[in-house]
Design goal:
Belongs to the Gfo/Idh/MocA family. The chain has about 350 residues and is of the alpha/beta class. The protein folds into 2 domains: about 150 residues, Rossmann fold, CATH 3.40.50.720; about 180 residues, Dihydrodipicolinate Reductase, domain 2 (2-Layer Sandwich). The chain contains 10 helices and 15 strands. Helix 4 runs parallel beside helix 5, helix 5 packs antiparallel against helix 9 and helix 7 crosses helix 9. It is globular.
Length: about 350
């Protein structure tokens, strides 16, 4: 019997998502050994290892983890501001890398990462846009590609969240929240964006931070004329609510609501609404990492969202922030042709 290959993983950043991926990679994904963890807060990573009953080398400096010969793959779940430098270090060390979104904070940094990756002549990195792996979105894309509803004309979406911290500002609403739809729509309809506008509706009374506009409306138009509307609301009081309707010439695709047990009680019929993203997309995260590990464990390039996808999302998010700060002005978008390395999908 052939010997099973175990992929040795190091995780940089042991916050909420990092802790979740630590559990996933040690308890859910087969043939993975998390050999190292790292967090800039002394003792934080070790505390989480102890809580989960795990043993791994605990580094305070991510350079030590990246250069550890006992780490085959680097998973970056650090603060957004650190993604660029950690990813660049991992690529320079020749390690396959998984980076949570966003890939970097601006388009220039994404291009630097792409230039570094291209030196290998193959993909070394995957970006954590996990909705590409959510079964309901995969089904929607397949139906769009098959022409089930004819040519797409419009997309109507909402991204409501009630669990964001008080310090969340408008830029984070775009680069951490709306960026999911920005990436997803480009993938769903395979059409580049032509322009973007961000509008400021009436402010919710639950905003305590003057640096955030909440809610906001993001409007995009693609090169072929498809119009997209995204409602972003990170102070929603009733739950975590995701909607995606694709309106085509022949019909409509509607993202299903996550099924919950219905209650008939006290003359009322009701179902629960989820309250956070973790429960909503847990299966997508599992499928995403299983696919990533399956490929890189065989020294094969990952096939999920690429650095180029991260770049497109970053350019679009940059323009969205500019529009918001300029009272909803239309920002034109233009993208170069994807390098051959990323066109081979």
């Amino acid at each position: 019997m052939a010997e099973t290959h175990v992929t040795k993983v190091g995780i940089v950043g042991i916050g909420f998502i990092g802790s979740d991926h630590l559990h996933r990679l040690t308890k859910t994904i087969a043939n993975v050994d998390v050999t190292a963890v790292c967090d800039i807060v002394p003792g934080k990573a070790q505390k989480e290892l102890d809580r989960q009953g795990l043993t791994a080398h605990d580094y305070l400096d991510y350079h030590d983890l990246v250069n550890d010969p006992d780490v085959d793959v680097v998973v970056c779940t650090a603060n957004n501001e650190a993604h660029y430098e950690i990813v660049m270090a991992a690529l320079k060390a020749g390690k396959f890398t998984f980076c949570e979104k966003p890939l970097a904070l601006d388009a220039k940094q994404c291009l630097d990462i792409i230039a570094e990756e291209k030196k290998y002549g193959k993909r070394m990195l995957q970006v954590g846009f996990m909705r590409h792996y959510a079964p309901e979105y995969v089904q929607m894309k397949q139906m769009i590609d098959e022409g089930k509803i004819g040519a797409p004309l419009m997309i109507d979406e909402r991204h409501y969240n009630q669990t964001q911290p008080e310090e969340y500002d408008s830029s984070r609403s775009i680069i951490e929240t709306a960026i999911h739809e920005i990436d997803l729509d480009h993938w769903l309809i395979n059409d580049d964006y032509a322009n973007i506008r961000v509008f400021s509706p009436k402010q919710t009374k639950y905003v305590q931070n003057a640096k955030i506009q909440d809610p906001m409306i993001v409007m995009m138009e693609t090169k072929t004329g498809i119009n997209i509307i995204i409602e972003v609301f990170v102070r929603c009081q009733y739950g975590y609510d995701i909607k995606c309707d694709v309106i085509g010439e022949e019909g409509v695709l509607e993202l299903p609501t996550v099924p919950q047990v219905a209650t008939r009680l006290n003359a009322e019929y009701s179902t629960a609404i989820l309250t956070d993203w973790k429960a909503r997309f847990e299966s997508a995260y599992d499928i995403e990492f299983r696919d990533f590990i399956d490929h890189v464990s065989q020294e094969e390039s990952p096939v999920g969202p690429s650095a180029w996808d991260g770049y497109i999302a970053a350019v679009t998010a940059d323009a969205a922030i500019t529009s918001l700060n300029d009272k909803g002005t239309t920002q034109d978008l233009s993208f170069p042709e994807a390098p051959a390395l990323y066109a081979e999908k």
